[in-house]
Amino acid sequence: MLEPKILKDIESAFRQFGYEAEDVFNAIAYIYSNIFSIKASEKLSGVLEKGKLISDIVFQDDCFKKNN
């Protein structure tokens, strides 16, 4: 399990851009699919495409990078 501070930092990074719930799920699914090299079905590929867009926005932010 992740430390509470790490979870708060992740939540803050997404909320900074107004992302919650399904958007966060999509981004996390995208990240996990890359880490574990998961091949996407047609249904999952839509989720991963949305997740990539959100991840690119959230994790390119200089403020987030400085906090890590």
UniProtKB/TrEMBL annotation:
Assigned keywords, A-Z: Methyltransferase, Transferase
Record-level Gene Ontology MF annotations: methyltransferase activity
Domain of life of the organism encoding this protein: Bacteria
GO biological-process terms attached to the record: methylation
Name under which the protein is recorded: Similar to Type I restriction-modification system methyltransferase subunit
Lineage, opening ranks: Bacteria, Bacillati, Cyanobacteriota, Cyanophyceae, Oscillatoriophycideae
